[in-house]
Amino acid sequence: GPAISLHGVTKTYRSGQETVPAVRGVDLDIGSGEFFSLLGPSGCGKTTTMRLIAGFEEPTTGSVSLAGTDVTGVPPNRRDVNMVFQSYALFPHMTIHDNVAFGLRRARTPAQEIQRRVAEALELVELGDRAKYRPNQLSGGQQQRVALARALVNRPSALLLDEPLGALDLKLRQTMQIELKRIQREVGITFVYVTHDQGEALTMSDRIAVMNHGTVEQLGTPAQIYEQPASRFVAGFIGTSNLITGTVTSGGDGARMELGSGQHVHLRTDREDGASIDVTVRPEKIHLSTSEPAPDHSRVRGRVTEVVYQGSATHYTVDTAAGSEIVMFQQNASGAGNLAERGDEVWLSWLPEHSF
Ligand code: ADP
Ligand code: MG
């Protein structure tokens, strides 16, 4: 069965006269050994969901189960999960060794066992040679790894990480993302990872729950969420997408959105003629050309307003005759020049199955 289950969980905070619905009817099953991410904008209820799993908060309604046992009402220290915070919360006056040993000492673990486990945990995060240092003698990334060692040392069956890399600069974040994946594979326990960074969630996760306003908007693998976003919100939040608006007109070959002068978007829709509708297309699915594309493609004319070289790709912004700006990416092969320059009149086209 699942390592962590939430059933119909809501959490409403009271602040003064106000009630704040932070989590609204969340159902989740997180598998044992899974790297599971909660992804969403600030204020969508990620931290609250984590605190409900850890036991720092109790649900207003619903229940939380760990390994099939209902733990609603069980205090945090009696739940088999640990939480790692963005602020590492290390004791500044203690050595790294003592920071990691702290919980084991409190649990009156035998000294030899403490020695062995602390050494093992520091080895795991590659800080075996820093045991005698103090936190302020380590870099930010190293301090985060100490926090991780401390959370792993009592061998919880799940680790909850709340934006753990938020305080690190981009380069270090990317190194730590790979590091965290390695550690999770090595210890084989469930990781629940909170982030507002879609790139981070896509890179690291087995599955992602995209949250918005206290609810889960979509649950799936990174590829499912990126390729088949379930809502406008998910499409807008994950990756870059273009939104094209128009009205449905059905033709001989199925529904279309007519944009005039041979421009049209093919649609899969059960909406009636004249209904106003929008479609989303990812930049990398769009083809840019100066010659007219085949009519069985969705196609829009426009003028290039921006060409931005970004190394591995070039980004084009096109002001379309359909009234919206569309962004597309060209992967750069060596020696290949630009597809178009600023001011050029171009066609954009894509396969009907690549819009949603
Ligand atoms: P996230 O981690 O996704 O940024 P949070 O779970 O921290 O979101 O917060 C969700 C909502 O609940 C926000 O509107 C926040 O202001 C509110 N909230 C969080 N904690 C409290 C609290 N202790 N008291 C009142 N409101 C809170
Ligand atoms: Mg938060």
UniProtKB/TrEMBL annotation:
Subunit: The complex is composed of two ATP-binding proteins (PotA), two transmembrane proteins (PotB and PotC) and a solute-binding protein (PotD).
Q: Which keywords belong to this entry? A: ATP-binding, Cell membrane, Membrane, Nucleotide-binding, Translocase, Transport
Top-level taxonomy: Bacteria, Bacillati, Actinomycetota, Actinomycetes, Streptosporangiales
Q: Which organism is it from?
A: Haloactinospora alba
* InterPro entries to which the protein is assigned, alphabetical: AAA+_ATPase, ABC_SmlMolc_Importer, ABC_transporter-like_ATP-bd, ABC_transporter-like_CS, Mo/tungstate-bd_C_term_dom, P-loop_NTPase, PotA-like, PotA_ATP-bd
Give the catalytic activity: ATP + H2O + polyamine-[polyamine-binding protein]Side 1 = ADP + phosphate + polyamineSide 2 + [polyamine-binding protein]Side 1
Q: What does this protein do?
A: Part of the ABC transporter complex PotABCD involved in spermidine/putrescine import. Responsible for energy coupling to the transport system.
Q: Cellular component GO terms, alphabetically?
A: ATP-binding cassette (ABC) transporter complex
Q: What's the protein here called?
A: Spermidine/putrescine import ATP-binding protein PotA
Q: Tell me which family the UniProt entry assigns to this protein.
A: Belongs to the ABC transporter superfamily. Spermidine/putrescine importer (TC 3.A.1.11.1) family.
Q: Which domain of life is it from?
A: Bacteria
